[in-house]
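help with this.
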Amino acid sequence: MYKSGDVILAQIQFTDTFEIKKRPSVVLFEEYGNFVVAGITSNLRMEGISLSKDEGAIKESIIKLNYIFTISNKMIVKKLFSLSIEKKKLLYDELVKHLDDLIS
C-alpha cells in the first residue's frame, strides 16, 4: 500500500476540464481506501515546494500546495519514489502554514 510521502502516478481529473490524465502527485495521507494527495507540476513558475531530479523526479518539478484532492486507490497507477524525511517535513510544515493563514 502507499503511505505519506510516496510520490505516485495517478489518474487525475483536471479542475478546469473533464479530461483525465496520468499525473504525478504526493500522498499526504490515506483513510478508508482513499488518498489525499497534492499535485505535482513541471511548470517551475508555479508556487509550491521544489522537487529535483536528484530527489527522484523525472524532471525539476513543484509540489503544488494549492492543488490538493482525494482519489481512490483504484486511480493509482504506481509508486514512483518516496520523499526524504526532510522534504516530507517541509511539505507538512508549509501545509500547516497555509491552513493557519486561513484562520488568522
